[in-house]
Amino acid sequence: MNPDGTNRVNLTQNDHHDVLPHISPDGKMIVYYCHEDEALKAMNLDGSDKAIVLKANNLVNGPRWSPDGTKIAYMSFDDDLSSSNLFIFDLLTGEINQITDQNYYSCLPAWSPDGEKIAYVANPKGNFELFVIHLATGEEQLLVTLTESIHDIEPLPLSWSPDGERLAFAKEFNGMFDVCVIELNGKKLINLTNSVEYHDYAPSWSPCGTKIAFVSMRNNKEDIYVMTADGSQINRITEFEGNNKYPIWFSIAE
After folding, report:
1. What InterPro entries is this protein classified in (predicted)?
2. For 193-251, how does the pLDDT look when each residue is reduced to its tens digit (9 = 90+)?
3. Can you name the residues that pair with 30 across neighbouring β-strands?
4. From CA 204, how far away is CA 168, in angstroms rounded?
5. Pick from 16-20, 141-145, 186-190, 227-231: least confident
C-alpha cells in the first residue's frame, strides 16, 4: 500500500500466517516466512510466482535480503525451540554460513546498508539485548538492553537508518514498548514515541530517511503508523479489520 494507507493489495491468501516480509533491494521481490510450508518463500511484488527459497529441518524465520540482493540472512531454531542462531544463505551458490553459535536466542537479523554488519537481538542474560556483528571479523558489539524481563521477540524487529549511522528498535520502559533510535557508538538513545499507555514497536525506516513506520496498540489493536524520524507528526495509516503489523518500506522498481 501507499505510505498514506491507500491502494492496499492482498498478496497472499491462505489460512496460515505469512509474516516478516522483506523487499529485495531492486524492489521487485518479497521474501517472507510461510507458516503453511514452514519455509522461507519469495514472490514477485504483485504476489505472483510464489516459490520456496529455503526449507530446513528446523524452523527458519525472519528473512532479510542483503543490500546487494545476493544473500538472505535468517534465524534458525533448534529442535525444541529453546534457542536460535543466525545464518546467511547465498542465493547464487546455495551455500549456507552460520554467523552465531549460541545456546540462547539470536534472532531478527538486519543488514547494515553497506552489507558489512548485521544487527540482531539476543538474550544471553535472559533479557533481550541489541547487538551488531561485524561480518568480516565476527566482532560483536552490545548497544542496549531492550526488554526488562524475559519476553517474546514479536515487538523487536530492527531497522537501520539509510545512512547506516543509527538503528531504530523497540525498547521496554515500565512494561510498555516505545520506538527508540540509537547511534552505533551506543550513545544518544532517543525515545521517539515515549508512551506510558500503549505499545509502539517494529519500526521501519523509510528509504529517504525522513520517516519511520511502526506498529502501535493505541487503538486497542495493532495498526501501522507513520511519523517523522524525530518522532513528530504521528499518523495512523491502517484502519482495516484485524491486526496490521511488520511494516516494510520500499521504492517502486523501475
Report:
1. 6-blade_b-propeller_TolB-like, WD40
2. 998 889 999 999 999 999 999 999 988 889 999 999 999 999 999 987 778 888 998 77
3. 23, 43
4. 7
5. 16-20
Q: Rounded to whole angstroms, how far apart are CA atoms 254 and 184?
A: 32
> Tell me, what CATH number does 186's domain have?
2.120.10.30
Q: Under DSSP, is residue 195 helix (H, G, I), strand (E, B) or coil?
A: coil
Does 183 fall in a domain? Answer: yes
Q: Is the dihedral of CA 20, 126, 132, 173 positive or negative?
A: positive
Looking at the chain, list the stretches that DSSP marks H as alpha helix, in order from N- to C-terminal side: none
What pLDDT does 123 receive?
93
Q: Tell me if 8 is assigned to some domain.
A: no
| pLDDT tens-digit map of 43-64 | 998 888 989 999 888 888 999 9
Q: Does some domain include residue 202?
A: yes
Q: How many CB atoms lie within 10 A of CB 220?
A: 7
Q: β-strand 51-54 against 106-111: which pairing, if any?
A: unpaired
Contact (Cβ atoms closer than 8 angstroms) between residue 217 and residue 197: no
Q: HSE-up of 38 (CA within 13 Å, CB side)? A: 6
DSSP category for residue 59: -
Within-domain flag for 31: yes
The residue with cell 511502526 is 214
Total tally of structural domains belonging to the chain:
1
